């Protein structure tokens, strides 16, 4: 494992940089510590701390398998450098050799690197919040001393709102750019505009006076590839040319997307939501929200959507917005230096991402609260709402679809629904739950096969094969050939007199001069033809999406899931419409549906089906209903949406408790404690803590009797990320807890700053040092890096309470005592493994995939 180390003359602390191993989509093994406990697993080669004369390794959690990381391409843009020049010639509390009082306390000034975290470590939420309170208290106290300090206090309070404004502006702008580019490149597969290559099909034909409602897609200025290459669009050869160009462009876009991801930003693949959930829970994945990831994900998202694969851009837009939020945090020290505060910003950025994805600001806030965020205080709720508002306003100003709407499939329905229709709506909910459970199981099985076989070593070939199959099957069917967003828009559409779609090919037996809604009509030949095509589209979408989601390109799941549900809903809606027309005298219809009335709206069924399938896959409820409500703008359809969403969740939960994002978190081994699950087992802290019986004793540091050499030996011979500090080895009375990284940086910094600190110097964690004999080297005081209030529980504490503490406080570790004496330690990894063991799962699969 490569290491990055400073030269001897530099004043910066040693950095740790894990690098990517091989082309096999795996980053190696990051070991979870059992802090200071002998039960910790080996951490061979993950990270290397540097002293002058030895190397050591540590980590906080086991290495997770980040999907798509296949190249040795280290990105560290999301966390600012912690290095800095250390002041030289700074005096210390004590004299040279022979002084009677020689305790060195150089930590009065903060040392760069102390209090920070290595890659693939969990942050200490309690410490981060405490540091932020201290910072805020200091600024408030100083604001009373001068006008400049008061201005600084006001700017600090305002910085959060300014940051939300910038996130909203940047997220909305990028979303508009992605929408416009994807629309143009999707149409590029079928032809080009002769009056300007930058026009998509719709914009090219806007000002043409030869376009009719029957042939709205044909205009002289838009030429298909057969017209350009062989000067005709009629006949079998022209069809073959268009077919070939469609497949060729799809393969080109997909190849560019997977190649850019593989070479420049391995973290840009997938939807990003499982990783963002893990990051928001307190995990560190450096580079995942960096500038290279943002640039590559933005470009490749356009390419992936344009290739025609069964994926969407809505999920990746959340990742893009979080990248924007993380990068902009660097402009504000308040958020740059505090990991907990930064995660509040990322929660708001996720809301802005959903806001521009669906044009649903309120739904975005609720999505962040319900599905993504781990810690969501009230202040973050307000700021999330503001960021989502600004993002939606920015996208509306850009108007990427030319319809003054934020999404392509915005619809408005006017026909009220009847109570009896709750039955088909619930049936759609059942279908959505079954589809969600089926998709999760099959997709996870395929992704596991990809990770454990040779298939995972060839991401480019996999993407090209899936793209070729998708394009070959998609072109003959107009509903699979069009983009998925356009398909959803077509399915949601409430047919009017001027609609030329085959879905609106009804036989008209009424006076069209009368106003009002169109009555239910008998289906024409076009409707029946469309039903067969939609049935084939449904089968293809169900199958191909299973193999598409999880490939090494940006891929969202919202739009494919909605498309599956919308197709099923439209099919059911048309069936109900025709049943009501031909059998309006049946008991179920005669009380509310008379002949010639507009009773059934097939587009509403499509919308309810879309919500049901999306809910079955993601297990969203409240935020899903609000998002769909904002798409339609109709309050009267909330009840059908709620009925379908709840039914879908109940059915899917009965077949499997995990949503797709939680399933991928578990598959990849991310250290994520699900707050929604209850721990109902009657185990105690002593059953989980390390060390166990017959294990070696806990590795500890004493408060005033260990030398620098002793501490360096402990660090070099162990792989733990922290050590309990006790009064003495005999008493085992707990004093505090010190992190390995802080120890390494502090001792290295002391050696650089003072020649008097040698291997025989005594390290003290106490407030005052006892008198030392003459002619002894200076002592080293490290009390300022000691956590004097580590969380402790007794050995008889029920594990349900311990799990609750870890979830609600975001702890990294918890010490176990008995009558005030230190017994052991429980880490987040131990809790996760214990939960898996209680659920009859392999505990070693939690963090070692």
From TrEMBL:
Reaction(s) catalysed (UniProt annotation): 2 chloride(in) + H(+)(out) = 2 chloride(out) + H(+)(in)
Domain CBS: 689-753, 785-845
Listed InterPro entries: CBS_dom, CBS_dom_sf, Cl-channel_core, Cl_channel-5, ClC
Role: Proton-coupled chloride transporter. Functions as antiport system and exchanges chloride ions against protons. Important for normal acidification of the endosome lumen. May play an important role in renal tubular function. The CLC channel family contains both chloride channels and proton-coupled anion transporters that exchange chloride or another anion for protons. The absence of conserved gating glutamate residues is typical for family members that function as channels.
PROSITE patterns hit by this protein: CBS (PS51371)
Subcellular localization, as worded in the UniProt entry: Cell membrane; Endosome membrane; Golgi apparatus membrane; Membrane
Identification of the protein by name: Chloride channel protein
Subunit text: Interacts with NEDD4 and NEDD4L.
Record field: transmembrane: 158-178, 243-268, 345-369, 419-440, 460-477, 530-550, 557-576, 604-629
Superkingdom of origin: Eukaryota
CDD domains for the chain: CBS_pair_voltage-gated_CLC_euk_bac, ClC_3_like
Family that this chain belongs to: Belongs to the chloride channel (TC 2.A.49) family. ClC-5/CLCN5 subfamily.
SUPFAM superfamilies hit by this protein: CBS-domain pair, Clc chloride channel
Molecular function terms from GO: antiporter activity; ATP binding; voltage-gated chloride channel activity
GO CC terms of this entry: early endosome; endosome membrane; Golgi membrane; plasma membrane; synaptic vesicle
Keywords from the named record: Antiport, ATP-binding, CBS domain, Cell membrane, Chloride, Endosome, Golgi apparatus, Ion transport, Membrane, Nucleotide-binding, Repeat, Transmembrane, Transmembrane helix, Transport, Ubl conjugation
